[in-house]
Amino acid sequence: MISLFKPCLVKSVLARAFRRGALLCLFCQLLLPPALAQSPAVSEYKLDNGIRLLLAPRPGCGAIHAVWFLNGGLLCNGAIPHEAADLLFAAWFVGHKPSSEPGFWMKADSDGIAHGRDITTEALEAWGHGESRRLKQVLTQEQVALAKRLFAPERQASDTMAELCALTLSESDYVAHRPKNIENLASITLDDIQNLAKKYVVANKTLLVLVGDLEEASAMRAMEASFGQWEPSGAAMTNDAPPGNDSIDDPQDDSTDDSKSPSVDETRKREITSDKSEILVAWPIPRSHSAHLPSLELFAEILSGSVDSRLVKQLANEKVSLSSVETMVNSPVGNRAGLFVIRAVVADGYLAREAEGFVLSKIQCALSIERDEHGRPKDGDWLSELEINRATHRLNAKRALRLASASGLAAALIDAFVRADDWRPALAQVSQDVSLAPQVIMPVLQSFFQAGSAYSILAERDPIQFPRSPEHARLASLLSQLLDTKISDTAKREALIKDTIRQFGQAPHETRREMLSLLESEAASRGRDD
């Protein structure tokens, strides 16, 4: 999925970041080299067996970023648990540590599995033979067992994004984000992995992308010499994910019978305990509204794309319930829905519900237009033409910088290919024509971000189990020690401690120090009495 990840900015560094952001914006809009302002040159070929190949020459750079992508993904495992796709990937790359290998990456998600790395121009043919052999190897029980041992620990980690995906629409659409189940992991057999490899590793599901210092004819020969040895597999590459949930709500469809629906808190909100306090607020993007993606991506940029964005400015100008914020637009793929997500860390001393209320109120302020008796907009917070134009320039500049990176261009081409079976949208800039004028974009956004249409995950940090700082840990310890004999009910005692810690988080530093000093004196006095 395409995601526009906006920088998480903390109040304490906003002043310095603003100066840097202003310089970046200036360079992006005025001083970008002509090569960045133009779309990269990309050519599409097909090997004799049906494998598709995208080439983006960059003569003289001295290196190539080489990628293979196998279409299908975690949604297409059939009766095999979706953890099998992760295990297949892990078994292929047993012994590799991506973090220690520059230019090396790999991923398995709902759309497919992919691997890329930086290589020298001279190593292209060797890379092709090596990766072709890797994908066609017959995996052993030892490889699968080692992959299970390596990947098991991360299955236990809490994941608020997984909780959000389980809450929104059809869970099957977001199987790739679900927390991985250790029991499922143990049940997957060698036969499962080998059968999955046979299903994935076929010519009509394979895309190769090469970006860098290459000559097209020689690159074609190198890929034919390696991947061209695979047997043809017939039909063209398509996204064969299972049908999505047809009950996806259309933001403009008011036909839902609310009298038969569960309460909002049951269907659109989930409160969990986590190792950090954060919120995820999301709105679905049905496939039928994918044409409105430019408007949604622009709105994401307006909300948190720079230090001058709406939500980020609040972190500097007011004492608010957020300490950082980012916005993600996961666009629809195939017939599945996407999500527009605002993810924010809750500021010390505030509750997740307070942070959620702040975000929702700012969204409504941005989209509420009040007019005077003559029908003209009153002064307020709605989107202006100037704000939209600035966000458009920033978004285009960020895209140009991404495409200037070999790995960024390769990833963008794959993302576009997955969604539309066409790489060309990856090179498109955000249009500045009338389609993104305020009078056009506002009705679109208002149809998506209606009151009560958001899904929310409210993750509250357990301040006793996961203290924010050493002084928070010391406070919890002292309170527990002092209240142990005064309040026998464990639940009431923990609730009082948590509420005290929350208020402690909102207090000035000097007040915190005095409070800890008093509690330490009280604890020491009690110890002497005992």
Give the biggest beta sheet.
6 strands, mixed
Number of helices: 19
| Count of β-strands | 11
Helix content: 40-55%
Terminal CA distance reads 62 Å
- Helix and strand content put the structural class at alpha+beta
Please give the radius of gyration in angstroms: 26 Å
- From the structure provided, what is the oligomeric state, counting identical versus distinct chains? single chain
> Spatial order of the strands in the main sheet?
1-2-6-3-5-4
Write the layout of secondary structure elements.
Elements: H1 14-31, H2 34-37, E1 43-46, E2 52-57, E3 63-71, H3 83-92, E4 105-109, E5 112-120, H4 124-136, H5 141-151, H6 160-167, H7 182-187, H8 190-200, E6 206-212, H9 216-226, H10 264-267, E7 269-274, E8 278-285, H11 293-304, H12 310-317, E9 322-330, E10 338-346, H13 352-367, H14 385-404, H15 406-420, H16 438-448, E11 455-461, H17 470-483, H18 490-506, H19 509-529
Parallel strand pairs: 2-6, 7-11
Antiparallel strand pairs: 1-2, 3-5, 3-6, 4-5, 8-10, 8-11, 9-10
Helix pairs in contact: 3-5, 3-8, 4-9, 11-14, 17-18, 17-19
Can you describe this structure?
With 530 residues, the chain is α+β, with helices and mostly antiparallel strands. It is built from 19 helices and eleven strands. The radius of gyration is 26 Å and the shape is globular. The model is unreliable at 1-37, 171-177 and 240-262 (pLDDT under 50).
